[in-house]
Specification:
CATH topology of the domain at 55-173: Cytochrome Bc1 Complex, Chain D, domain 2
Largest sheet: 2 strands, antiparallel
Number of helices: 14
Radius of gyration: 27 Å
Helix content: 25-40%
Order of helices and strands: HHEHHHHHHEHHHHHH
Shape: globular
CATH superfamily of the domain at 55-173: Cytochrome c-like domain
Oligomer: single chain
Structural class: mainly alpha
Distance between the termini: 84 Å
Strand content: under 5%
Length: 350
């Protein structure tokens, strides 16, 4: 009897162990392959761990910038009425000290990216994973180095004939205007590479001092500015919880379907999918002209469809101002044809 009870007890233990090892959702999911992990593991740390090998010159970066970046950020990083300036507000003394003096000057009108950023790795990492806006992660490492080099040259961190690479980036870091503008006392990075603190400062005591006891945070867009730059709800990526406020004029919602400003559903999806609304609106100027204005200007061209398809595919500049439209090479032929036909038809409902 004793051996039988022991045998049954052993079976029970084996059954429990087997159950514990069984996936909670049997048949769903799998372990990521090394190649899949590598594709996502692209972050670059402040000590430049994770930096890919490569190099790029300021001159190469300028060509890439004008083709892929200037449409939103301006040829010289001055940006435009929609996007904040990337360059400006730094001086030769800031490069020497590593502290941007104007960050503490309340009379200075703005805070540019190169006034605030303390590590080149931050610029490199963000450009590599998120730019250009219409095609994130499409830049090769050499192109990211080149674009970053051009941006740094605009702030005199690199000379006009300079180069940025994985070999010299630590040296260039020593010329970044606000390189000493960050505290490491919060110890949020693992290990002792960046801080001597014994544990992370999860209370934020290193920087959160003299704060208001009852802070009130509010955001309000006045009525007269609601549609100044087009409908904000159409200018957000469909990633994450953040969504722009629906600022479309209220009168537009009350129009009959035949007069509605929005395009047919399938074309609207294409315009959203390819981030067209990032720079254009249906009937209001944003970064680029309104779709209806474009359609009206070329409505008498017999080859309007072919013309629109060609300009979208290869890019355009000079016809509607100084801000160029980058080439949309990733748009499929079918999508390109549908968008071009919609424009040729007047940019209205189909």
């Amino acid at each position: 009897m004793s051996s039988s009870r022991n045998f049954i007890f052993a079976l029970a233990l084996a059954s429990v162990a087997a159950t514990a090892q069984t996936p909670r959702f049997d048949g769903i999911g799998r372990t990521a392959t090394p190649a899949e992990v590598k594709a996502w593991d692209i972050d670059v740390r402040p000590d430049f761990k994770g930096l890919p090998p490569g190099r790029g010159t300021v001159a190469q970066g300028q060509d890439l910038w004008e083709a892929k970046c200037a449409g939103c950020h301006g040829v010289f990083g001055e940006s435009n009425e929609v996007f904040s300036a990337l360059v400006g507000g730094t001086t030769a003394d800031d490069i020497k000290t590593g502290h941007v003096k104007r960050l503490t000057d309340p009379s200075f009108p703005g805070r540019t990216t190169l006034m605030k950023v303390s590590h080149i790795s931050t610029l490199f990492d963000y450009i590599q994973r998120a730019m250009p806006w219409t095609a994130p992660k499409s830049l090769k490492p050499d192109e990211v180095y080149a674009v970053t080099a051009y941006l740094l040259s605009l702030a005199d961190v690199l000379p006009a004939d300079g180069e940025l690479s994985d070999r010299n980036i630590a040296e260039v870091q020593q010329r970044l205007p606000n390189r000493n503008g960050k505290t490491w006392d919060h110890a949020m990075w693992p290990g002792k590479e960046f801080s001597k603190a014994s544990k992370p400062d999860v209370q934020g005591s290193s920087c959160m001092t003299n704060c208001a006891t009852e802070p009130k945070v509010a955001s309000l867009l006045p009525d007269f500015a609601m549609n100044a730059h087009g409908n904000l709800s159409q200018q957000q990526r469909l990633v994450g919880p953040q969504r722009g406020l629906d600022t479309a004029p209220k009168a537009a919602a009350a129009k009959p379907a035949a007069q509605a400003a929005a395009p047919a559903v399938d074309v609207a999806k294409l315009l959203t999918q390819h981030a067209c609304f990032a720079c254009h609106q249906i009937d209001a100027k944003l970064v680029g002209p309104a779709f209806k204005d474009v359609a009206a200007k070329y409505k008498d061209r017999p080859d309007a469809r072919e013309y629109f398809a060609s300009r979208i595919r290869s890019g355009s500049s000079g016809n509607w101002g100084t801000i160029p439209m980058p080439a949309q090479e990733a748009v499929s032929a079918a999508d390109l044809t549908a968008i071009a036909a919609w424009l040729a038809g007047g940019a209205g409902n189909q």
